[in-house]
Inverse folding.
């Protein structure tokens, strides 16, 4: 009898040990919660990114439902990025993320992360930032004018600290003049829209995507410009400028006749000109014209100094 009891005790002890090993093994198989979670808000969306969890087949994002008072599944994603769209402006939201393990076409959630909160903005980010270079080394950044924006703030990336610092603050135009840039060096700017508080201070809304500026060396000014009028056609020729891919011919601004009006300065299709000759129809009168060289893109307007010239058509 004693022998039977001893065998039973040994069996139960071994079973407990095996069960304990299974529990430990099961616990070890549960993946940890995603870390490195960063939330970036716009006016109606939130972008969530996180670090990859080793062993995860997918991820699940949870969004807090105020009406239910709990987190609900928002979406399963295969990568480590989730864009949450269709949100309300100026509203706080909370999110959680969990890794998923797939077995027999069924996803099982693992450890869920802590809750992260973010607030959407009143305005979207400034868009369509374009640059205009001038022969004196200055640059103008311009973007779409935004309804609801009371002002703007421009930031420049500090290459030493790796952080953005204010370049110009609380200006109302949808453009900013950039000066003192060195040729060949790349500068990075971002633009933020501002709304005005009741006390006169400004609240920053969303920031634009980074815009890079690399000031290129200016091309030589076009030379040996000659004009010839044949009937009602004006032909302009000039010497090729080294490094130029296109040329722009335009009317000079601020040139007035004796009665205070500008005459005959319009040049049809006078941008993106290839070659060193251009012709267009003219009428009698005086034309106040200018030509510059461009390295390639049409946005590289005024890439060289302008050569000014006048033409009289009798």
């Amino acid at each position: 009898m004693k022998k039977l009891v001893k065998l039973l005790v040994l069996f139960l002890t071994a079973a407990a040990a095996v069960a304990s090993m299974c529990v430990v093994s099961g616990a070890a198989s549960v993946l940890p919660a995603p870390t490195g979670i960063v939330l970036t808000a716009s006016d109606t969306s939130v972008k969530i990114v996180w670090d990859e969890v080793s062993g995860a087949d997918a991820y699940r994002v949870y969004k807090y439902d105020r009406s239910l008072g709990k987190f609900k599944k928002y979406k399963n994603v295969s990568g480590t990025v989730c864009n949450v769209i269709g949100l309300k402006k100026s509203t706080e939201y909370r999110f959680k993320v969990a890794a998923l393990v797939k077995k027999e076409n069924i996803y099982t959630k693992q450890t869920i992360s802590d809750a992260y909160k973010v607030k959407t903005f009143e305005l979207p980010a400034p868009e369509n930032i374009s640059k205009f270079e001038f022969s004196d080394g200055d640059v103008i950044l311009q973007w779409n004018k935004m309804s609801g924006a009371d002002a703007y703030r421009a930031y420049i990336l500090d290459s030493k600290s790796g952080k953005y610092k204010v370049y110009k603050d609380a200006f109302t135009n949808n453009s900013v003049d950039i000066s003192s840039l060195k040729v060949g060096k790349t500068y990075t700017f971002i633009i933020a829209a501002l709304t005005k508080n009741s006390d006169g201070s400004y609240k920053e809304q969303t920031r634009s995507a980074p815009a890079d500026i690399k000031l290129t060396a200016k091309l030589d000014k076009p030379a040996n410009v000659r004009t010839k009028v044949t009937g009602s056609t004006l032909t302009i020729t000039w010497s090729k400028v080294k490094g130029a891919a296109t040329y722009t011919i335009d009317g000079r601004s601020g040139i007035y006749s004796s009665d205070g009006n500008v005459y005959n300065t319009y040049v049809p299709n006078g941008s993106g000109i290839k070659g060193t000759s251009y012709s267009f129809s003219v009428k009698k009168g005086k034309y106040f014209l200018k030509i510059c060289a461009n390295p390639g893109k049409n946005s590289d307007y005024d890439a060289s100094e302008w050569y000014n010239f006048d033409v009289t058509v009798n």
